[in-house]
């Protein structure tokens, strides 16, 4: 016992880190367990002794869940594409060019991130109603692009700030044109930041409920389906989809990390 407490005292930072990770992953573990457990009743969230994979074999068995998931994926993909393109262009403009109002533009970029979602959602609703724009799929896309844009600009701009300008200068010294320098030097270096911004936007758009609830009209996204189903008992298929999304995100992060380490080792070996 003395050795154990001595080890804890010597590695207390590691212990605290493991406790925090366990706290963060505990809800995910519960969601996964609920996805492989047959409840005693529709309104029961207790873990029974009946373990099954039937919900994984038919994840769209609950009425309406497939349509809601399809709508959420469609909105997330469209909003991510638009926000990534516009946000990347804005990040390049703010990081590489000097113009009047640049400081104000940098400050305004953070406003959607700092504004409460209730305020942002209600403001957009008032705007759409004033302009007589029918609420639905595209109003949700516009709303998601608005708040995703700030995250893309901040992420890509941080990547640009960490680039060594001498690499681009060396390419220009070797008679590369501006377009060739951008395509062969700048873009590959910035691409990880753009990919990270796109994945962040995708997750934020797919997961959003408050702003979507204000501007969706009759359109039902996956978070809104879960909120509505909670009043009569959340189907176990929701836990299956949640677990599958987490596993997919975890695999993407793991592959990215392994690929980055492999490239770093190859670069070290070459040098």
Task: Please write out the topology.
Elements: H1 2-10, H2 12-35, H3 54-57, H4 65-96, H5 102-109, H6 111-114, H7 117-130, H8 137-161, H9 165-173, H10 178-207, H11 210-215, H12 222-229, H13 236-270
Helix pairs in contact: 2-13, 4-8, 4-10, 4-12, 8-10, 9-10
The gist of it:
With 271 residues, this protein is mainly alpha-helical. The protein is built from 13 helices and no strands. The model has no long low-confidence stretch (mean pLDDT 85).
Q: How does this structure look, described?
A:
The protein is built from 13 helices and no strands. The chain is mainly alpha-helical and 271 residues long. The protein has a domain at 63-234: MetI-like (MetI-like fold). The mean pLDDT is 85.
Tell me what the CATH architecture of the domain at 63-234 is. Answer: Orthogonal Bundle
* Percentage of residues assigned to helices: over 70%
Compute the number of strand runs.
0
Envelope shape: globular
Structural class: mainly alpha
CATH structural class of the domain at 63-234? Mainly Alpha
State the major sheet: none
- Strand % is under 5%
Please give a handful of descriptors for the protein shown.
about 270 residues; mainly alpha; MetI-like fold; 13 helices; globular
